[in-house]
Amino acid sequence: MRSPIKRFPVPDEFVSWSVEYPNYKPIFYESDVLSGKSWADPKIEDEFFFPKWNELDGKVNRVSHSGEYKIVENRPQNPCGRTGIVGRGLLGRWGPNHAADPIVTRWKRDTSGKKLTDEKTGLNILQMVAIQRIDSKEWAIPGGMVDPGEKVSETVKREFMEEALSTTVDLSERLTQFFNSGIEVYSGYVDDPRNTDNAWMETVAFNFHDETGAVVGDINLCAGDDAGKVKWMDLNSSVHLYASHKNIVEIVVNRLKAFW
Ligand code: RP5
Ligand code: MG
Ligand code: MG
């Protein structure tokens, strides 16, 4: 969901905290939705809230992939700079909000099963299972938040099942094996529209590649949870994807030496 709040403008040259921005007057915003939710932290001033920043805090992972983040005026500071909003905005956790993203790929083929290539470069065309988010209507990787105590390898599988297969029932042996053989392609900050000066998205993205197309190539896709639509999307440099998902997908395309 895009924040309904108008951010204080931050020109590119003032994003970095190391550059003085004396006129910076960020807007405070925390969604009412967060109050009392088990997946959200309390307000920073809550007398019973003693977060362990930069550590595994019970089951909540407050460690950033970008290294140690600063605590300024009792609040975690976004390691990528100013955003125009203070407070958590729409995000549940102060500091890093951990997600996981499954990039499920296959080669584009014709009806006879022959791999299709880009005419100019002769490179094969890669396809990814993409979902259309209900909140912003943008196409995206079918990722989601890591539950407290959950392994990211479980999160990617669970989120793919919820958003792209609309199921929570156990997968077949073959699919289970497929989802156990993912390759981690990225871990770090996500340039998500919900990020604020004190709360931001981070992800671990895994590639699950079906080389022959026999495992997930003809799987029954069905959009569920926060996905309105699901499809196999051709990947190339003109795709538009939510947040910084395009950069993450490009890593997979390069890894598999596909057309971009
Ligand atoms: C993105 O938001 C992550 O890369 C992940 O895809 C997603 C997680 O948030 P929800 O889909 O649960 O809203 O930044
Ligand atoms: Mg989800
Ligand atoms: Mg999601």
Automatic annotation (TrEMBL):
The family database entries (InterPro entries) matched by this protein are listed as: NUDIX_hydrolase-like_dom_sf, NUDIX_hydrolase_dom, NUDT9
Q: Which domain of life does this protein belong to?
A: Eukaryota
Q: Which SUPFAM superfamilies match?
A: Nudix (SSF55811)
Fetch the Gene3D superfamilies from UniProt: Nucleoside Triphosphate Pyrophosphohydrolase
Q: Name one GO molecular function term.
A: ADP-ribose diphosphatase activity
Nudix hydrolase domain residues are: 107-255
Protein name in the entry: ADP-ribose pyrophosphatase, mitochondrial
Organism, as annotated = Pseudolycoriella hygida
